[in-house]
C-alpha cells in the first residue's frame, strides 16, 4: 500500500525527468564529444563521459549526496554519510536544511540529483579533452565532486548560506554551468594545452554524430529544468516551455551572427548557440515569462558568441589557456549571464510558484535581487578556481596530469588500444591483402 505522502504522478515525472537528464550524458555528451574531436581522440573523449557517470554515482551514494542535500555540517556543506539502506530509499524525499519535502521517495531524489552532479563533471571534461591523463581524470572526478560540487549544491539548493540569503538558481546555472565553466578553464590552465598540431587543426571527425548528441542534450533539458519543481506541476510546464523558447532564439541569433561575420552558417556554431541558450535559461526557467525567455535567448546567442569568436581570439588569456570545446564561453559566460538576468527578470508569480516568493527581480521592484545574484556568482567563481587548482596540484604530486608526449601523438590506440572507426575488412585497423 502506498504511503499517504506519495504522489504516483510526481514520482513518475521525477524518475522520467532524471532518466532523460541522464541521457544527456550517456549517450548525449559521449556522442557530442566523440563527434566534435579529431578521430584519434573520439574513444578517449567518450570514455571520459562514461567513467565520470559511473564514478559520480558510487561516490554520490556513499557520501556526497548528503554533503549536498543532507543535514548541515557547516553553512556551506552537509554532513557526509551514506544513503544506501532500504529505509533510506523508501522514506519521503526531504532536504532537511532547506525544510523542503517532495511527494516521491528519497531514492528518486537521490537519483535525480545524481544526474545533475554527473553532468557537471562531464562538462568540465570538455575543457581538457585531448591531453588530460585518464588516470588523473579517474582521481579528479570523485575529488572535485566531494570538495567543490557539494559545496555549491548545498549553499544554493541544500539550505546553505546562499539559499538563506535569497540567491536563486532554478536548475543549475550557477551550481552546474558556471561551476563547470570556471573549473574547466582552471583545469585547462593547470594541465596545459594540447599539442600545437592538435590545437591548430581540430576538425570534427563526425558532425552527424555530434548533432545526434546535441539533439539528446536539447530534449534532455526538458527533464533538467522541468524536474526541479519536484512535482508534475504548472511551474514544471512553464519551465519546459521557456527552456525551449530561449534555446531556439539563441540558436537562431548565433546562426545569424555566424552568417554575418564568417559568411557561412555553421552547424557546429548553431549547436554552440543552442547550448548557450540552454545554459542561460537554466537559472531562470520557471521564474520568467515567455517574452523574457525570448529576450534572454537574444542575449545568450550574442554575448557568448562575442566572447568566443571575438574576445577569444584577441585576448591573451584566452589564447594562452587551451579550453578545448570553449566551455568557459558556453557554460561560464552563459551561466553567469542567466544568473544575473534572473535577478532582473524573475516574476512574482514564478518565484511564488517555486516557493521563493520574496526573491523576484528588479523589473518587478526588487533591485536587491541583482546584488544577491552577483554575490552568489562571486562565491561559485572563487570556490571553483581555488578548489580545482588545489585538487589538480595534489593529484599532480602522485600521477602526471598530462598524457605522455608519444601518447598525445597517437591518441586512442596508445591510451586504450582502441580506435573509433574501422575502415578495412572485418574491422581491421590497417588494410590487409584482399581489401
From TrEMBL:
Domain of life per record: Bacteria
Localization: Cell membrane; Membrane
First-listed, main subcellular location of the protein, grouped into a coarse class: membrane
CC annotations in GO: plasma membrane
Ammonium transporter AmtB-like domain segment(s): 12-421
GO molecular-function term, one example from the UniProt record: ammonium channel activity
Recorded topology in the membrane: Multi-pass membrane protein
Keyword Transport: yes
Family (UniProt): Belongs to the ammonia transporter channel (TC 1.A.11.2) family.
Protein known as: Ammonium transporter
Amino acid at each position: 500500500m502506498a504511503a499517504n505522502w506519495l504522489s504516483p504522478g510526481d514520482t513518475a515525472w521525477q524518475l522520467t525527468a532524471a532518466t532523460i537528464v541522464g541521457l544527456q550524458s550517456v549517450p548525449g555528451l559521449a556522442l557530442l564529444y566523440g563527434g566534435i574531436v579529431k578521430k584519434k581522440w573520439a574513444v578517449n573523449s567518450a570514455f571520459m563521459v562514461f567513467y565520470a557517470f559511473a564514478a559520480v554515482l558510487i561516490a554520490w551514494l556513499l557520501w556526497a549526496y548528503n554533503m549536498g542535500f543532507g543535514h548541515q555540517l557547516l553553512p556551506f556543506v552537509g554532513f557526509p554519510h551514506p544513503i544506501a539502506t532500504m529505509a533510506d530509499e523508501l522514506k519521503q524525499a526531504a532536504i532537511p536544511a532547506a525544510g523542503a519535502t517532495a511527494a516521491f521517495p528519497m531514492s528518486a531524489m537521490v537519483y535525480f540529483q545524481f544526474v545533475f552532479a554527473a553532468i557537471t563533471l562531464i562538462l568540465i571534461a570538455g575543457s581538457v579533452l585531448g591531453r588530460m591523463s585518464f588516470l588523473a581524470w579517474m582521481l579528479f572526478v570523485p575529488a572535485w565532486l566531494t570538495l567543490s560540487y557539494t559545496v555549491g549544491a548545498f549553499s544554493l539548493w541544500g539550505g546553505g548560506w546562499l539559499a538563506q540569503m535569497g540567491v536563486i538558481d532554478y536548475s543549475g546555472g550557477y551550481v552546474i554551468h558556471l561551476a563547470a565553466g570556471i573549473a574547466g578553464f582552471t583545469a585547462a590552465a593547470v594541465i596545459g594545452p594540447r599539442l600545437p598540431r592538435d590545437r591548430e587543426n581540430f576538425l570534427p571527425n563526425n558532425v552527424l554524430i555530434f548533432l545526434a548528441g546535441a539533439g539528446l542534450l536539447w530534449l534532455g533539458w526538458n527533464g533538467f529544468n522541468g524536474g526541479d519543481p519536484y512535482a508534475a506541476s504548472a511551474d514544471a510546464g512553464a519551465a519546459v516551455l521557456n527552456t525551449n523558447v530561449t534555446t531556439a532564439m539563441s540558436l537562431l541569433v548565433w546562426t545569424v551572427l555566424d552568417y554575418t561575420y564568417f559568411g557561412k552558417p555553421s552547424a557546429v556554431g548553431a549547436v554552440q548557440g543552442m547550448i548557450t541558450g540552454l545554459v542561460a535559461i537554466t537559472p531562470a526557467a520557471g521564474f520568467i515569462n515567455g517574452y523574457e525567455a525570448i529576450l534572454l535567448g537574444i542575449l545568450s546567442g550574442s554575448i557568448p558568441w562575442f566572447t568566443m569568436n571575438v574576445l577569444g581570439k584577441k585576448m591573451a588569456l584566452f589564447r594562452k589557456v587551451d579550453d578545448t570545446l570553449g566551455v568557459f564561453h558556453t557554460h561560464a559566460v552563459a551561466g553567469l549571464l542567466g544568473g544575473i538576468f534572473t535577478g532582473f527578470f524573475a516574476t512574482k508569480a514564478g518565484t511564488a510558484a517555486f516557493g521563493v516568493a520574496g526573491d523576484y527581480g528588479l523589473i518587478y521592484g526588487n533591485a536587491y535581487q541583482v546584488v544577491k545574484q552577483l554575490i552568489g556568482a562571486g562565491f561559485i567563481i572563487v570556490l571553483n578556481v581555488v578548489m580545482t587548482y588545489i585538487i589538480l596540484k595534489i593529484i599532480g604530486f602522485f600521477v602526471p596530469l598530462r598524457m605522455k608526449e608519444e601518447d598525445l601523438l597517437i591518441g586512442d590506440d596508445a591510451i586504450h588500444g582502441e580506435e573509433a572507426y574501422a575502415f578495412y575488412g572485418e574491422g581491421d585497423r590497417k588494410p590487409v591483402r584482399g581489401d
